[in-house]
Design a protein that fits this description.
The protein is an all-alpha fold. The protein has 16 helices and no strands. Helix 5 packs antiparallel against helix 6 and helix 12 runs antiparallel to helix 13. It is globular, with a radius of gyration of 22 Å.
């Protein structure tokens, strides 16, 4: 279905001066579209992000939950390669709508979680998620660039601001989804946690069997899934009815690009040193999210406190992530991108050391909330700064840049979920810490190159 979209918000893209009578209306439309997209993603990921946090605990028999998540992100890797072509065929708006529908389908298959139901839906969700996230990056970045053009403001400042607003809404989905799961599970049957389990960094697949901690009754789980499914449907309706179509900058400048070029755009961009040196950081951004969702929730929270506490603890993660995303989007122009990346690295490296030394028990519950909150601070840095950095580095190759971002991030998710059923938690923490150190060193080399060598970038 070829959907040729035009940006109704730009009267003449080649002219930087907009009549004063139109500026307010144009600014309002850009903000309206940003808010619609942000709220729709909040509803969609209120369901999915919270369900992801619970998969390793609720569907742990034969590793079904983690296998499902691994397949989602494995399929997402493949779909990211073709995302630019898919986006240009469907358009940004229809890419959002179709992608969100598949998230809802995945939620529905959790009513009857078996390998023959959950795995196929995971595959289709993964294929839809790559284009959806590439489209999100392109839509927010293009809106920011167009807004900066209308208001005559610095492009990087507006990109950071728009990404900060979007990610504040998006990360708040951890709050609402986890609050729902905890409240609903609290109304269910109480379960008893035994004291003979090995939790934390020493938790290994060979030590805890499938019955190492109890799970909520099926009826309670179905109530939660029904609420999550409603959130997904509402997200799709918001996109369909209220989001304006928008063409990305790369769509506007390459409408006649050959199909083969579109299909290879993601791979071709890897030849650029700015991209390939950032790959470890992109992978780590997936590893750290997969760890907090799959391993921290299962081996620390569920193991020591019970499944019903997962939601409450992850609310702390979501609150910090959401608020930090908004603040970081505002202060980046004052403190600089490098300072923020260093902050994120210090926060999560410090927590990795803490979790290696910590033996979680039913006492000192505050520590679970503190670890989750500080991990959310680090995640806010990666999500806001990576997205805005790519938007600045590759303004004319947005789909390819964000496809690479989600592709390599998905690889981090896939690998982490895949080895979760085989490695002890301490091994996973060592892997994450080592990768973060390498990623920061290579990121530093990119910053050095663009400041000392790349004159074009310096003139931006």
């Amino acid at each position: 279905m070829e959907d040729i979209e035009t940006d109704p918000l730009i009267k003449n893209p080649t002219i930087n001066v907009v009549p004063s009578s139109d500026i307010w209306q144009d600014k309002w439309r850009y903000w309206k579209n940003l808010l619609v997209l942000s709220v729709a993603f909040t509803f969609n990921f209120t369901a999915y992000a919270s369900l992801q946090n619970l998969e390793s605990s609720l569907n742990r028999e034969k590793g079904l939950g983690l296998a499902s998540l691994s397949i989602i992100y494995g399929a997402l890797i493949i779909s990211c390669i073709f995302a630019p072509a898919i986006i240009r065929f469907l358009g940004l708006k229809w890419t959002f709508f179709i992608g969100i529908i598949w998230y809802a389908v995945y939620t529905a298959t959790n009513y009857y979680p078996q390998f023959y139901t959950l795995i196929p839906s995971s595959v289709f969700l993964g294929f839809a998620a790559g284009p959806l996230w590439a489209a999100q990056g392109a839509y927010v970045t293009t809106s920011a660039l167009n807004y900066a053009e209308v208001t005559i403001e610095l492009e990087e400042t507006i990109i950071n601001r728009f990404n900060g607003v979007f990610l504040m809404f998006f990360q708040s989905s951890q709050i609402w989804g986890n609050l729902l799961s905890s409240l609903i599970f609290d109304f269910g049957k109480n379960v008893t946690i035994s004291d003979d389990r090995i939790c934390g960094a020493l938790d290994c697949p060979s030590l805890n069997n499938d019955t190492s901690f109890p799970e909520p009754e099926k009826k309670t789980q179905d109530i939660l899934l029904s609420v999550y499914l409603g959130c997904g449907v509402l997200a799709a309706i918001l996109i369909l009815l209220f989001l304006d179509p928008l063409s990305s900058r790369s769509q506007q400048s390459a409408e006649d690009t050959h199909l083969n070029t579109r299909l290879t755009a993601t791979v071709t961009l890897l030849k650029n040193y700015r991209m390939y040196l950032l790959l470890p950081l992109l992978v780590y951004s997936g590893v750290e999210q997969a760890y907090i969702a799959g391993d921290f929730t299962k081996s620390f929270v569920s193991c020591a406190l019970g499944v019903k506490m997962v939601g409450y603890v992850m609310i702390a993660y979501g609150v910090t992530d959401a608020l930090a995303s908004l603040v970081i989007g505002r202060i980046q122009e004052y403190v600089g991108r490098i300072s923020l990346f260093i902050l994120g690295a210090i926060a999560q490296l410090g927590l990795i050391v803490v979790m290696l030394l910590w033996t979680p028990t039913q006492g000192h519950e505050w520590l679970y909330f503190l670890v989750a909150a500080l991990w959310g601070l680090g995640d806010a840095v990666w999500q806001t700064q990576i997205a805005s950095f790519l938007g600045v580095l590759f303004p004319e190759h947005q789909e390819a840049a964000f496809s690479n971002y989600r592709l390599w991030q998905a690889l981090g998710f896939t690998i982490t979920f895949a080895y979760s059923n085989y490695l002890c938690v301490n091994a996973k923490l060592y892997i994450a810490g080592g990768l973060l150190v390498v990623a920061m060193l290579l990121y530093g080399s990119v910053e050095y190159k663009i400041r000392r060598v790349d004159i074009t970038y310096a003139e931006i």
